């Protein structure tokens, strides 16, 4: 099942994609956000499937304005240095424990919305990543049971302001400029993909040029491990997201370096999950 968030008369609505058409689940009496739907447990997703089978009113995919699939996660945990080749190009040692940091909802937009290059930097980099959505709450989750806590997956562009990222040992500043990343286009339930979304091709393209080309099986810490680790300090809740790390090919590591600028089009595509596309504009 593929769910998405979209703007309906200025308000968020939850949709079920059926081919090129969207069923407005909110108009059918379901919640307006995926966050709220997931808090209802398996019954929420079952209700969405039933509504999709019976609803008569649909809109075409091309007629909607996408919002990020999860509107207000309680926690958005991003993972750094999670592909060996990216570790090498970044000149770090492979981590023995996941490198984790926070990303705030104000720092991302949905599919089709512009990414904003801030006026204080010209080092605006792309990072294509797999995104994990938690569907079942838990604390101290055992790795062997961790995938039971996954509701589904999406695509993320962890847009990074590199010169701010390197101002200190903490990456928060470089990873949280307003509207610098993107999330979407939709949420794909876990049953549509291989366990842990492993074995999926991930590509990032800038103006049609392939700059990242990797496979999710090559992550240092797989989805189950990330869930187990992230559930140690705090309970994971339905709607929480884990942004699982980027492979090699980032612009800062290239010679010459490649950074996103106004007028560019950045696309991140993950096999079976979706194609996330955003133009770049100058902000402020």
TrEMBL record:
InterPro entries: FAH, Fumarylacetoacetase-like_C, Fumarylacetoacetase_C_sf
Domain of life, source organism: Bacteria
Keyword Hydrolase applies: yes
Cofactor requirements of the protein: Mg(2+)
Key words of the record: Hydrolase, Metal-binding
Keyword check for Hydrolase: yes
Transmembrane segment boundaries: none
All copies of domain Fumarylacetoacetase-like C-terminal, residue ranges: 76-281
SUPFAM superfamilies: FAH (SSF56529)
Molecular function per GO: hydrolase activity
Pfam families on file: FAA_hydrolase
Recorded family membership: Belongs to the FAH family.
Official protein name in the record: Fumarylacetoacetate hydrolase family protein
């Amino acid at each position: 099942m593929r769910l998405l968030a979209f703007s309906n008369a200025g308000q968020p609505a939850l949709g079920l994609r059926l081919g090129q058409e969207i069923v407005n689940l909110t108009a059918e009496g379901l919640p307006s956000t995926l966050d709220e739907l997931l808090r209802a447990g398996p019954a929420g997703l079952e209700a969405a499937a039933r509504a999709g089978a019976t609803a008569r009113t649909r809109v075409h995919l091309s007629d909607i304005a996408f919002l990020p699939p999860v509107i207000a996660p309680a926690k958005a945990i991003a993972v750094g240095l999670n592909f060996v080749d990216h570790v090498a190009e970044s000149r770090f040692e492979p981590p023995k424990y996941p490198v984790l940091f926070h990303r705030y909802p104000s720092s991302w937009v949905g599919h089709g919305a512009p990414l904003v290059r801030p006026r204080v930097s010209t080092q605006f980099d792309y990072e294509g990543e797999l995104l994990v959505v938690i569907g079942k709450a838990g604390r101290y989750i055992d790795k062997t049971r961790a995938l039971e806590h996954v509701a589904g997956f999406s695509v993320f562009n962890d847009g990074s302001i590199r010169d701010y990222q390197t101002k200190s040992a903490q990456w928060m500043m470089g990873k949280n400029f307003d509207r610098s990343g993107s999330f979407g286009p939709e949420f794909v339930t876990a049953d549509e993909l291989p366990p842990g979304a492993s074995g999926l091709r991930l590509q990032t393209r800038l103006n049609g040029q392939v700059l990242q080309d990797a496979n999710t099986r090559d992550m240092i810490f797989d989805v189950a491990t990330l869930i187990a680790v992230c559930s140690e300090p705090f309970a994971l809740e339905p709607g929480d997201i884990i942004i699982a790390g980027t492979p090699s090919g980032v612009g800062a590591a290239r010679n010459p370096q490649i950074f996103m600028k106004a007028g560019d089009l950045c696309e991140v595509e993950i096999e079976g999950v979706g194609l996330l596309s955003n133009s770049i504009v100058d902000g402020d």
